[in-house]
Amino acid sequence: MTSSLIINPPGQQGPGRTPPAAVAALDLAIARRAAGRLPGDHLAAGVGAGTELQQLRPYVEGDDLRQLDAAASARTNEPHVRLHVPERALTTWVLLDISPSMAFGSDTRLKSDVAAGAATVISRLATRRGGRIGLMRWGSDEEILVPPRGGRNALGSIDRTIRAGVAADGTQPVCDFDHAIRRLGLLARQPGLVAIVSDFRDTSNWPRALSALAHRHRVIAVEVSDPREHSLPDAGSIVVRDPETGRDLEINTGSRKLREAYAAQEAKRREYLRSTFRRSRVKHVPVMTNRDWLRDLGTGIR
Known about the structure:
The protein has 9 helices and 12 strands. By secondary structure, the chain is of the alpha/beta class. It is 36% helix and 23% strand. The longest helix has 25 residues, at 256-280. It has helices spanning 20-35, 70-76, 111-126, 152-162, 177-187, 207-216, 227-230, 256-280, 293-301; strands spanning 6-7, 52-58, 80-85, 91-97, 132-138, 144-150, 166-167, 193-198, 218-225, 237-242, 247-252, 283-288. The protein has a 6-stranded mixed beta sheet, with helices on both faces. It has 2 domains: 6-38 and 89-225 and 288-301, von Willebrand factor, type A domain (Rossmann fold, 3-Layer(aba) Sandwich), CATH 3.40.50.410; 43-85, no CATH class.
């Protein structure tokens, strides 16, 4: 059920075109980022059919004759069988930020448009080669979770959740970003790939939770931003709204001192994000509303 505080924000344009060639190139980049090898090489617990050798031992009655190893049998003059570690599909999780600040945009599209595009593309790539995709939506008055599934059936639920909209201004989220990351860490039990799509403007103490998540999974941080968030224009007195609280504030952007202070604070925040991702060994992929986000996504993941 859709929350009453979820809206389709004014100015919503959608993510735009996703050329097949660009998506195909991103497919290989995601595969390399996921595990440094193709998903067919991911290992599961136990012994059975697979590509990774687990054990080479003498044949005993009841063994599968198809597992006989001719070379080992010839060397030892005794039948030997090869046992393998079974393969499993890679599970990818997307943590999608739909907090009120994601509805902002001053150029071609909103941050929520770009976030939806990135989440959709990653979801589609995740189901290739037998992979599974799960999604958790954060930033509204309720937690929405789509458990990991594979194939076309999974994408229908994922797409509907992504397209549902963003939280209205002043919405109090059911949990902060720190809690959302920790919650995802509990849900993602097997090592896999986690893509966090957000503007990373939450002020909770989330870096420690991110480090813990990255210790077990390969994590991609897709940071969505707008150029007007990096610096203020000289536009005189304007009224701005804090989307997280819904409060309006009149500021004088004609003040050079104010513009410089804002730009310095924003530069400090961006450097803090970069250093946090480096320390946590998280792949930082910045994308912007006024650029080709699909190209930047592919370039950043490689």
